[in-house]
Write a structure and sequence with these properties.
single chain; 276 residues; alpha/beta; Rossmann fold; six-stranded parallel β-sheet; 13 helices; globular; binds adenosine-5'-triphosphate; binds magnesium ion
């Protein structure tokens, strides 16, 4: 039986492009590689959801069907009801024109996840348990994580085969990469999960000396030598920043933009790395 490959997009740094990578990598894996893809929006900021759905449609969906907050059973209103079913929260074919791309939307209520689950035993394994019901329906599941390593991200990591690190190539981000790998190693031991690094993808890359220098230097550093660095880099590109306003991935918003070309190449690299 087919079982999805689960990938978490992680970086403790905010605004580095995790969500942009999640949305656009998912789109090209579905469109160009005929993968059945599910995005899980684990971030209370709901950026992945609002990059793929108009706000009104998202609001209607989460009210009528549910969101990631219901998966974690955070809604006090529904406490005495039957728990919402994971599969019922999924928006199928979330973007008209992109076959095979589904989304389980996020919700602002996820801000309370850490507090609400503080005393729940096995709180970092909830997602893994619930995901089991749909894991055979997909080829790839991408978890868009918030910029921290708390309960939502721990749930994603526990459920994942791989983690993928989008990072900007600058000095402070390279220190951040070191801290991130350190914390992930700690969580891996403490929570006893098996996860491997799919790779690091440089994002928001500009033609400035220190970006180019960092991209050359990092793969050579002893600490990072064993890491995979994707050949494709994602340039800073206005169209990538604009596309979420129209609730469209770059492939539909402007398929000829440099950012679109980069994501097409990144998807090919990721598909090859996952074994076709
Ligand atoms: N390559 C790019 N070129 C131009 N704008 C970009 C690019 N990547 C991301 N952006 C824009 O920068 C902002 C931050 O990107 P994004 O939301 O993907 O980062 P993030 O790491 O998910 O942030 P957070 O940590 O808050 O979840 C967004 O407004 C996004 O549209
Ligand atoms: Mg994000």
């Amino acid at each position: 039986m087919n079982q999805a490959t689960v990938i978490s997009l992680v970086n403790m740094k905010g605004g580095v492009g995790k969500t942009t990578v999640a949305v656009n990598l998912a789109t090209y894996l579905a469109r160009d590689h005929q993968k059945k893809v599910l995005i899980l929006d684990l971030d209370p900021q709901t950026n992945a959801s609002l990059s793929l759905m108009p706000e009104k449609a998202w609001l209607r969906w989460v009210e009528e069907h549910g969101s990631m907050a219901d998966v974690f059973e955070l809604d006090a209103k529904r406490k005495h009801d039957e728990p919402v079913k994971f599969a019922d929260c999924i928006v199928h074919e979330v973007v008209p024109g992109v076959a095979g791309l589904d989304l389980l939307p996020g919700h602002l209520r996820l801000t309370f996840l850490d507090l609400d689950l503080a005393s729940r035993p096995g709180r970092e394994r909830i997602l893994t348990r619930k995901l089991a019901k749909v894991i055979e329906d997909y080829d790839v599941i991408l978890c868009d994580c918030p910029p921290n390593l708390q309960t939502a991200t721990q749930n994603a990591l526990y459920a994942s085969d791989w983690f993928l690190v989008p990072m900007q190539p600058d000095f402070l981000s390279s220190i951040g990469l070191s801290l991130l790998l350190d914390r992930l190693a700690y969580l891996k031991t403490e929570l006893e999960f098996k996860i491997k690094c799919l790779g690091v993808v440089f994002t928001r890359v500009r033609h400035v000396g220190f970006h180019q220098e960092t991209m050359e230097r990092l793969p050579e550093e002893k600490e990072f030598k064993k890491l995979h660095f994707f050949k494709t880099v994602i340039p800073e590109n206005i169209a990538l920043g604009e596309a979420p306003m129209s609730a469209q991935p770059i492939a539909l918003y402007d398929g000829s933009a440099p950012g679109a070309e980069a994501f097409r190449e990144l998807a090919a690299e990721v598909a090859a790395r996952l074994g076709g």
